[in-house]
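Encode chain A's predicted structure.
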Amino acid sequence: MDLWAIHLPIPFILAVVATLGYLFGRRTKAAEGEMSGRSRRELRRAQLVAAELEKIAWELRKSLAQHNASVARFKDRVSKLNDQNQQGGWKELCREAEEILKPTLRLAAQISNAHEEIRQQSANLMTFTEVRTDPLTGVNNRRGLDDALAGQFAMMNRYDMRFALAMFDIDHFKRVNDQEGHLCGDRILQKMAHMLDESVRETDVVARYGGEEFVVVMPETDLAGAGFFAERLRSKIEHEMSITVSGGVAEALDGDTQDSVLARADAALYQAKSAGRNCVFRHNGDETTPVASEVPVAGA
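Encoded structure for chain A:
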């Protein structure tokens, strides 16, 4: 059939073209709006990293300037001791050395602490690089997650700064792909990542852990706080998307490694799946328990 031989009214054709243009424009604006929101959050996070690095540098410059002044005074005193008698000079040298030893040790400790803080901020900077970004969802990939966890464990071991993580898995995702197609599955993953990204703090790290699994690393958060966040997010997804998710949360404990804390979160997630899905469980190191009964449902 010759499509050009079909005679359609010109107003009808123009209406179809206008409708298609309108729909395409809305889709483009929606995508731009989503990327704009993500960009704003990434910008705020980058500003936070820059502020922390600037603070570290300022404090080190201030301490180094004070220490340089102390060293200059010590050097001057040592030079003057040459003119004194040997016994008196030795006692004075001991006193001067003791005076400068304390601020020197404080500076050494501060530099050591600054090294760990810079390492942590460097890990945060790495999350902006493409090699640590999942190309489909725009959040961190497994490498970005590993770097974030390494930084958190360094802060925990040095400063006892605890952290927790939440692991989410989309329920019946294979069914979605089989019935709706992989393009629909990809859009769901992107929307899920966007919702996670918009729900966390600037200091939190969102990563795609597997096919339909996501992990959120939450600094300075305990098990109860992680469970509260995970349940609120689960409820939000249930009400705003066409899917449900199951979640598992765990807090980093003494003696943990990246693998062990992830394994506990995964065990809690598996328990949530076994309990019927669309719920959140937590693992306290000994057992897994549900958190839904302790958290108000969104909109209640």
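The beta strands are 163-170, 205-208, 213-219, 245-251, 280-283, 288-290.
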